[in-house]
Amino acid sequence: MAPNGGTVVVSDIKLEKLLCMKGGKGEASYANNSQAQALHARSMLHFLEETLDMVQLNSPDVPFQVVDLGCSSGNNTLYIIDVIIKHMIKRYESSGLELPEFSAFFSDLPSNDFNTLFQLLPPLAANYGGSMQECLSTSGHRNYFAAGVPGSFHRRLFPTRSIDVFHSVFSLHWLSQVPESAVDKRSGAYNKKRVFIHGASESTANAYKHQFQTDLAGFLRARSQEMKRGGSMFLVCLGRTSEDPTDQGGAGLLFGTHYQDAWDDLVQEGLITSEKRDNFNIPVYAPSLQDFRNVVEAHGSFAINKLEVFKGGSPLVVDCPDNAKEVGRAFANTCRSVSGVLVDAHIGDQLSEELFLRVERRATSHAKVLLEKLQFFHIVASLSFA
């Protein structure tokens, strides 16, 4: 962990060692606060299957290799890998081809809670030394070899021409670093009095936009070397419908309203300095469709099979929508599950607890509006080699 004090996100190396969704199985863990992501992902399965239908079927002598980039630590990644492999098995069988062996790589930053993820992994079929058909007849088991691959997806992670399918959902909006100019007092892009770019200055938003473009270009460059010639990529990230990058849509409502106000509370109560707040920024950028398209077209290696904005719905999953306290707690836990590790590193565990108590209190008093207005839009992209 980075020490408490100073800016924790000044470099990509520092952020890469630190950033992760909140691990374990506690109330604010990602594993227990990713139901909305599961619902949103399932609503887009038809797009994923269209992408899989374009993947070239290879010789059974060569393993079919699938990667989930930004896998995190819950059940969602296991569900998706299962969907991908079962779909490809059907394609092989309907083509009358012998089945290859399947490998799945779960990849995320080294700080990811791989332990929790692998504890959720179903056991390998006991007869996975025999034929693939024998293996598939074993229920409750997985029919693929599994491995964890730690590292940033903004760089190379796999051997050249080794991967058939890349899948990455709800990850590409995370930047490799907060733009240095956003936390530099001498810069016109200094994000003073804010912890996110929603409602920030045009200069700050442009710095974030440039960082997103740089990061996505690095991502595409790495995948263009790692993917097999007949492979495909299915990518989903937070997006926005506005052309104005200072309007971050659902992400803006999540991090730019009650979350922002809770940081201001800590300053006004003398618990942290204003400089301490100003040196913390959420390294997220929700691109517009055009932002995304421009980077893919400028890179040139990939053809766009599908690129659209998809309405994903609310990130809040609550049993009793009329219970304001439950809504407030769900909002605070959602914020904490994705940003808590960064907050802990920046202001320490005790002040982090104080921050999220204030987030919950503020969200509780605005529960009705949050349920009505907090909606996420996603950029959905299906790419293959040009």
TrEMBL record:
Pfam families: Methyltransf_7
InterPro entries reported in the protein's UniProt record: MeTrfase_7 (IPR005299), MeTrfase_capping (IPR042086), SAM-dependent_MTases_sf (IPR029063)
Keywords: Magnesium, Metal-binding, Methyltransferase, Transferase
Top-level taxonomic group: Eukaryota
Protein name: Indole-3-acetate O-methyltransferase 1
